[in-house]
């Protein structure tokens, strides 16, 4: 039973309260950041780069604007675009070969189903490191 009286229970409650405080602080920071950006920087929505606003006495407000780019390839769109670039001649082949970086990504579903002889081979090129564990407090469901 969860009594909140043992040292372990108190530690769990302190962590849970800190987790909630952090979530609220992130929400407030995000909203304030949007307001500061709107008030201090007049940039186009697709602007990419660094802007500074002089605040006086040596202070400045610096913002780095980023554009996230992703390639669509669910239906081979990227492959088709690269093929078109390649067909533009020798320079096109050179550009197409360097334009997109293909990185190996391990399929955990396939990995977990590998027979031992295959797993030993692929394990030689896999580096494993512990990730940050997640934790959540699951409250009891309300009785109807």
What does the overall shape look like?
A: flat
> Helix share of residues?
40-55%
Strand count, sense and barrel status of the largest sheet are: 2 strands, antiparallel
Mean pLDDT: 91
The tally of helices reads 5
Q: What distance separates the N and C termini?
A: 21 Å
Structural class: mainly alpha
Order of helices and strands: HEEHHHH
Radius of gyration, CA atoms, in whole angstroms:
26 Å
Number of strands: 2
- Beta-strand percentage range: 5-15%
Unreliable parts: none
Strand order, main sheet: write it out: 1-2
Summarize the structure.
The protein is mainly α and 144 residues long.
Notes on the structure:
This protein has 144 residues and is mainly alpha-helical. It has a domain at 70-126. The chain is built from five helices and two strands. The chain has helices spanning 7-40, 77-86, 90-99, 108-112, 116-123; strands at 49-56, 59-65. It has a two-stranded antiparallel ribbon with strand order 1-2. A hairpin with a 2-residue loop joins strand 1 (49-56) and strand 2 (59-65). Helix 2 (77-86) runs antiparallel to helix 3 (90-99). The longest helix is centred in the N-terminal third of the chain and has 34 residues, at 7-40.
């Amino acid at each position: 039973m969860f009594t909140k009286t043992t040292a372990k229970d108190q530690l769990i409650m302190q962590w849970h309260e800190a987790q909630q405080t952090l979530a609220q602080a992130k929400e407030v920071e995000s909203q304030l950041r949007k307001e500061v950006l709107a008030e201090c920087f007049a940039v186009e929505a697709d602007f990419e780069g660094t802007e500074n606003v002089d605040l006086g006495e040596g202070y400045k407000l610096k913002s780095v604007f980023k554009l996230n780019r992703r390639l669509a390839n669910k239906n081979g769109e990227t492959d088709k675009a690269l093929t078109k670039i390649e067909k533009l001649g020798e320079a096109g082949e050179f550009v197409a070969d360097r334009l997109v970086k293909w990185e190996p990504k391990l399929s955990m579903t396939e990995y977990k189903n590998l027979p031992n002889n295959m797993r030993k081979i692929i394990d030689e090129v896999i580096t494993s490191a512990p990730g940050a564990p997640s934790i959540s407090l699951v409250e009891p469901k309300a009785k109807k």
